[in-house]
Write a structure and sequence with these properties.
About 5% of the residues lie in helices and about 25% in strands. It has one helix spanning about 75-80; strands spanning about 1-5, 15-20, 30, 40, 50. Strands 1-5-4-3-2 form a five-stranded antiparallel sheet, with no helix packed on it. It is globular, with a radius of gyration of 13 Å. About 15% of the residues are buried.
Length: about 90
């Protein structure tokens, strides 16, 4: 789930996180040091936002989720289709 940086707030657990960058170093993947789950990351397609792992959210604060189909197999050709997701409303 990609959200604008202005709407992302890490509530707890900062001390348990570590960041890793692959290949170009543009995307910053944030993992739990203990279990290895990727909690969130700053994607190359949306450097002004965060891609959040829905499984890491407290569901009591989630009212609804809208799914947009995306061709991840051909990510480079389709990344532009994600740009609007990190823009503020």
């Amino acid at each position: 789930m990609i959200v604008p940086a202005s709407k992302f707030r890490l509530i707890s657990g900062q001390e348990s996180l570590t960041t890793y960058t692959f290949n170009t170093g543009a995307a910053q993947h944030t993992f739990c040091k203990h279990c290895g789950i990727k909690a969130f990351y700053t994607p190359r397609s949306n450097p002004d936002g965060f891609s959040v792992n829905l499984r890491c959210l407290d569901r009591t604060h989630v009212e609804s989720i809208e799914v947009e189909i995306f061709d991840g197999q051909n990510w480079e050709q389709n990344a532009g289709a994600l740009a609007h997701l990190s823009q503020d409303d």
